[in-house]
Amino acid sequence: MPIKKEKFIRYKLDEEKEKEKRQIISVSLNNEELNSLKESMKLLRQDQHGKAIKQLMKIGQIVLHEKKTSLIIDTLFINELNSKRRGITEF
């Protein structure tokens, strides 16, 4: 059975927090972005916003740094560039 922690109660000493070297950031999302995050949270089976954002970031890093994925993205950008040169702006 997991330990239930109360909100806004300090569970770590100041010395322990200094070792973590974390930086807290705030994120503002519009309704469309929030709905997208909620959909992603369902796919990840994650109920916490912060953890879902971290997991999505990790997945994004893996996808972007994967050699095959970068080739696909490069191809798409080249196709878009070529289309713009030919005057095609809508797909």
Descriptive report:
With 91 residues, this protein is mainly alpha-helical. It has a domain of 57 residues. Helices cover 63% and strands 0% of the residues. Helix 2 crosses helix 3. It is elongated. The protein starts with 13 loop residues before the first helix and ends in a 6-residue tail after the last helix.
List the helices and strands and how they pair.
Blueprint (H helix, E strand, L loop, with lengths): L13 H7 L10 H14 L4 H17 L1 H19 L6
Provide a brief overview of the structure.
This protein is an all-alpha fold and 91 residues long. It has helices spanning 14-20, 31-44, 49-65, 67-85. The chain has a domain at 29-85.
* Low-confidence segments: none
Average pLDDT rating: 86
Write down how many β-strands occur, each being a DSSP E stretch of 2 or more residues: 0
Percentage of residues in strands: under 5%
Helical amount: 55-70%
List its traits:
single chain, 91 residues, mainly alpha
